[in-house]
Specification:
Elements (H helix, E strand, L loop, with lengths): L2 E7 L4 H19 L7 E7 L5 E2 L2 E2 L2
Parallel strand pairs: 1-2
Antiparallel strand pairs: 3-4
Length: 59
């Protein structure tokens, strides 16, 4: 049973998250043969100022 954690900047809508859930689930069903009932996904919305990239805070 895959458990997928998606970390991203805050601000995505519920509709965008639902589209991501649909696509990620579909990928596991098609590629790994996982029953869709066994695909778990959690979103972690992180404020932009809590991300660092290339030596710089993104906030």
């Amino acid at each position: 049973m895959p458990f997928i954690e998606v970390k991203l900047y805050e601000g995505r809508t519920q509709e965008q998250k639902q589209a991501l859930v649909d696509r990620i689930t579909e990928a596991f069903v098609e590629v790994a043969g996982t029953p869709k009932e066994h695909v778990w996904i959690v979103f972690r919305d992180v404020p932009r100022d809590q991300w660092g990239m290339a030596g710089e805070l993104q906030g």
